[in-house]
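Q: What structure does this chain adopt?
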Amino acid sequence: MSIPRILIFLLCFVVSTKAQITPRNIFGKDYSLGAVQQSLIPLNQWHPYPQNPTEWKAQVPDSVLQKVIKDGEKALNYKFEPISATISLDYVRSGDRNRHGSISFGKRNNLFQLLLAESIEDKGRFMEAILNGIWSICEESYWGVPAHIGHTGLPDVTNPVVDLFSAETASVLAIADYWVGKKLDKINPLIRKRIYHETNVRIFNPMLNNPERFGWMSKTKPVNNWNPWIMSNWIMSNLLLEKDESRRAKMLYGAMIGLDSYLNSLGEDGGCDEGPSYWFAAGGSVFDCLELLQNATNNRVNIYQNVLIKKMANYVYKTHISGEYFVNFADADPTLRPDGLMLYRFGKAIQEPQLQHFGEWAFAKYPQVKTEGYQRMRRIQNLLTVGSIKADDTEYQPVNEAWISDIQVMTARDNTGLFLATHGGHNDESHNHNDVGDFIIYYKGKPMIIDAGRGNYTARTFSKQRYELWFTQSQHHNLPMINGIGQKDGRSFEAHDVAFLSNEKEVSLTMNIAGAYPQEAGIQTWKRGVKLLKQKHQIEINDDFVLSQNPQSLQQVLMTICQVDTSKAGQIIFTNDDTQLVATYDPNLFSVSTDMPSTEGMEYDSFKTKWGKKLVTRILLTHKKPSTKGKYQLKFEGK
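A:
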C-alpha cells in the first residue's frame, strides 16, 4: 500500500537547528511558591524510602536484599583516604582526572553501599565504617572534581562551586541522615550537625543566594545534562535535610524553576544532542526530579503528561540500535546497558507503552540491579521496582525509523538487519564533534561503519585544544576532506537545506554540508544524500559538490572496526566476526588506502578496549582526478 501524498509531504520538510531558548517555563507557569508550600509534605512526615528491615522486605525480594548486604560487607574493607593537594593538582599539572576521581568516587560509592546494607540489616555492624566515611567526606575542601573549578586545581573554600559531584555528594550525605541519623546521634550528635552545615555551605546557600553565577542555570542560553543532574540532587538533599519548612519549599521551587532552564533548552521533539549515553544523565535526571516532586507533594506537582516530557523520554528508544549499541554521535558512548528499571517506570509514568516495553526488554536482557554509581535516588527507586517489573523481551519492537527534527537526527532500519543513522545539525552542540553529515551503519546488530566516539576525558578534552584530538575532527568521521581540510567548530558551521523523506521505498536525509567547512576549504556547495532503500536493502551515500577552485586532493573517509578487504577494485568488504558488509565505489574515481588512528597517550587509551578490543581503522577513498565539481556515490549492502 502506498503512503498518501499528504503524508509524504508532512514527512518531507526543511528544518533549521538554531540554538535557542523556548520560554515554555512549564513549572513556572503551572506552579507558584505558595502552591508548593501548601503541597509539600513536611520533613517529619515524608518517608520516601524504606528505613528498616521490615519495610525493605515488604518491597524488595530477599535475594536482592542479600546481594546488597554482601556489597556492603565488601565495603567494610574500604579505607576512606584523604585527597591530597598533589592529587588535586593532577588536573592542572598533567591533565589527569583518574587519580582524584578514583578516590573521590570510591569514597561515595562505598559509603552508599554501607548505608544501604545498614538500613536493610539494621544490626549496627556497618556504623563505624559509615561514621568514618561521612567524616572523611565532610573533611574534604571540595566535594566536586578539580576539572570543574577552572585552572586553579585547588578550591577556593570561601567561594563554593556547585558541580555535578558536589551535588551528588550532598545526596549521599542526605540519605545517610535519613537512614542512620538516629544511630549517628548515639555515636555523637555533632555528626548530623556537620552533615547539614557542610551541605548548607556548599550547596544550599550557593543555590539559593546566587544560582545565576552557574552557567548550567542560565535562562538565556541552552543548558545540558548538568542542569537536571544537579537539580535532582539538590531536590533530594533539600527534601531530606532542610528542617526549616519555609526554606525547604523555597529551595524545592527554586529547583523546579531551575529545571525549566533545561526544558526550555530542548527543541520541540525533545532531542538530546549529547547522545543516548548522556540522555541517562539528562532526560533520565529529569525523570529523577519528577519522581521526587510527585512523591514529596502527594502527586500535586506532576507534569508527566506534558507533550515535551513524553518526546524527551521517547528519544532514548528511537536511538537504540541493537543490544547494547546506541547511536553515538558527539561524545556519546557506542555501548551501554540501558537501565531497564528506570525506563520501565518512566514509561508507566508517561503512559507510553513502547518505553515501558523497552524497559522490560532491557531488564530481561540485563537484569542487573545496580546500586553503585551516580543518581542515588534512581538506584533506590530501582531497588523498589524489582518486585513489580515484568522482565519480558517479547513486546518490545525497535522502531523502524525515526526523525528527531530539533537535532536533525535520522535513524532507519530494514527487515534484513541493515541499520542507518545520520544527522545534520551544527558544530557547537554539547560535547560536540565536528561531524555535520556523518553517518553510521550497523548490520545484524554489528557495528560496520562507525562514529569512533570519544577518548578519555582529560584537561585537553574541554580546552582550546579539544579539536586537536583526532576523535573530535571531521577528518576521522565519515565525511569528505578537501586538501586535507575538515570541518570547523562553532555555531555558524552547520548544515543547510536539510530535508527528511520517508515513503514506501526509502528513508533519507539530504543536506548541504558546505557551511560546516571553513572558507579555506573552498566549498561552494556540498549536497549530501544519505538514504536507506527499503526494498533493495541498500544504503546509498550520494555527494554532489561544487568547489571554488581545483583541489589538490579530495578524499572521503570511512571509519570502521571491521577487518577490511580492499583487494578488489571498486569494492570494500567489511567483516565483523561472521557478519559482512560490502561497499561499492567507482574505481575509476577513487583509490583506497587505510591507516590506524593513534591509541597512545592519555586521551586515546580507551580506544584499545572501547570497541570490544577491536581497533579503529580509517579508510581513505582518494579521488584520482579531483576537479571543481563532481558527483560520486557509495553503496552499502549486507552480504
